[in-house]
Amino acid sequence: xxxxxxxxxxxxxxxxxxxxxxxxxxxxxxxxxxxxxxxxxxxxxxxxxxxxxxxxxxxxxxxxxxxxxxxxxxxxxxxxxxxxxxxxxxxxxxxxxxxxxxxxxxxxxxxxxxxxxxxxxxxxxxxxxxxxxxxxxxxxxxxxxxxxxxxxxxxxxxxxxxxxxxxxxxxxxxxxxxxxxxxxxxxxxxxxxxxxxxxxxxxxxxxxxxxxxxxxxxxxxxxxxxxxxxxxxxxxxxxxxxxxxxxxxxxxxxxxxxxxxxxxxxxxxxxxxxxxxxxxxxxxxxxxxxxxxxxxxxxxxxxxxxxxxxxxxxxxxxxxxxxxxxxxxxxxxxxxxxxxxxxxxxxxxxxxxxxxxxxxxxxxxxxxxxxxxxxxxxxxxxxxxxxxxxxxxxxxxxxxxxxxxxxxxxxxxxxxxxxxxxxxxxxxxxxxxxxxxxxxxxxxxxxxxxxxxxxxxxxxxxxxxxxxxxxxxxxxxxxxxxxxxxxxxxxxxxxxxxxxxxxxxxxxxxxxxxxxxxxxxxxxxxxxxxxxxxxxxxxxxxxxxxxxxxxxxxxxxxxxxxxxxxxxxxxxxxxxxxxxxxxxxxxxxxxxxxxxxxxxxxxxxxxxxxxxxxxxxxxxxxxxxxxxxxxxxxxxxxxxxxxxxxxxxxxxxxxxxxxxxxxxxxxxxxxxxxxxxxxxxxxxxxxxxxxxxxxxxxxxxxxxxxxxxxxxxxxx
Length: 716
Known about the structure:
Layout: E1 6-8, E2 22-24, E3 36-39, E4 45-51, E5 54-60, E6 67-73, E7 82-87, E8 90-94, E9 100-105, E10 114-118, E11 121-125, E12 129-134, E13 137-143, E14 148-153, H1 156-159, E15 164-168, E16 172-177, E17 180-186, E18 191-196, E19 207-212, E20 217-222, E21 227-233, E22 242-248, E23 257-262, E24 266-271, E25 279-285, E26 290-300, E27 303-310, E28 315-319, E29 324-326, E30 333-335, H2 337-368, E31 382-389, E32 394-401, E33 405-412, E34 416-419, E35 427-430, H3 435-438, E36 442-447, E37 454-461, E38 467-475, E39 483-489, E40 495-497, E41 508-514, H4 518-528, E42 541-548, E43 554-560, E44 563-568, H5 571-587, E45 592-597, H6 600-637, H7 645-652, H8 654-663, H9 667-684, H10 694-701, H11 706-715
Antiparallel strand pairs: 1-28, 2-3, 3-4, 4-5, 6-7, 7-8, 8-9, 10-11, 11-12, 12-13, 14-15, 15-16, 16-17, 18-19, 19-20, 20-21, 22-23, 23-24, 24-25, 26-27, 27-28, 29-30, 31-32, 32-37, 33-36, 33-38, 34-37, 35-36, 38-39, 40-42, 41-44, 41-45, 42-43, 43-44
Helix pairs in contact: 6-8, 6-9, 9-10
């Protein structure tokens, strides 16, 4: 920190904002402050500056279609001060004074999701389609294999050719040349945002920083022939996905830092102490996801700051201006006079707003008593994300609302476990539900504390059981309104896409043949597995690789018109696929010819993967059951020196053991269930029903070693 850092409280609120929709205009003089321009989902572009701590409007446009992206442009090597917004399938251009000079209706059939501007070149992406325009004339087109989340182009003045880079949902960066794919660069998670390193692509102009939806950050060099990964930072602290990145020298050391905004509201500053990997120097938690981040000088000349815009439209500044001053005696730090008056005026403003709200509420209550009154349903925006976490094989459901959440009711028609989330302060209560007539397996209510706008839940599903999870979101607004959001729990819900698999493992094969089209079998795979693009792939056939996040087993699926081949080292995966695909084909009255090749060695291989997890969970359960008795002994005897070291260590680690056990409810039951399914599935393919032997298997599992378990499977 240079002078200590304070949070600026002078910035206004706009409407709900999408990712990358706030920028700082270049300063007009050497010492001048910068103007802020932001586009929201009401279609309004707001531009303002700050004078004496108060926002001063420059211009504001009329409402329209949602603004999906906002970028700055201009002729190459001149100040980038023209404002471009993507709204629907149209791109509009405005001068820094707010005068519209461009309205370009593209030929895209879908809404624009990502945009990049470089001189006269405009790069646009819808869900799967990339288009390049030069002076608004169509130049190049590319159809991506999966959804495109972001786009940028390497600086033309440095690399001397147009090199667009697409961040795609299937964990790759696609590098293009004209309308063709030059190559793919694999990244460790689904990339959500791209930025040029240092704001200019580094010395070579080829360096691109990416952020992923599972919170990883990396730098990759995009050369003319192949990608060269430079560094990668994992997400050890289990923070949110990355939504925005900027480069700015906020520490004043002559080297630009990396500014990162995440979807859990964490803002981070990384600096390059050594020339290699960046180091986290500073972080700050906001209460909402950070949609855009910029570094610049906004509030006061000579003091740089980091500006962030959040999902519901709040703009927050972190400034290098000292907000404290020492009193004359050299004693404690006190708030500066300017900051005290700022806080005082904010308090007054807040009191006025509270009075206004009370008056309007009373007026509403009185008018609602009238027999002619019509109550209109207030619209509110919900930002949701349902993703599988590789680390603990659980699903995160994140719900973010533009206003405070009152409660969220979660209902599921399949058996799922709700897991604890540290960041979650809501009170959860469970209701009993009938699983038989209504297929209702879970009914839980989360009651949120005041001013909670973001709620994170964690659930773990069981493979083979599929259906729908529903979240009923009720915000604190009048009249009471609720929105329902649905999330599919797929048959192979714990599988995640991966770039490659180990082909040396013992594999079981399932082969389907029949009168089905490529689109039909693709729709069945989409129904069965997560992370498969809904759009039917181009070409005649496709191969996808998956890994089971709970067990580490793998799946290879290759299919084309009239034929599908699925290989896995886990018989249960093949069994689930066989049942579900047969069911889907029967629904469409398609006759399938199903054949399978079972590898006996694969059962032993899968048991070897499961058994260490089983042993660990059994030991954990035994330790947890001993804690109360050991604590009672400790109270009675006064000390525990007489205990064996293994029992003393249980007492010392009691809190961590209880915490871990609480965090993973039903983990042991899940493993027992998987072993039981494996046992039944092994013999199902042989045409034998062994369900009567399941009780004996469960008895054997208690305290059984790996060899004993394998022997039981083989003897049966």
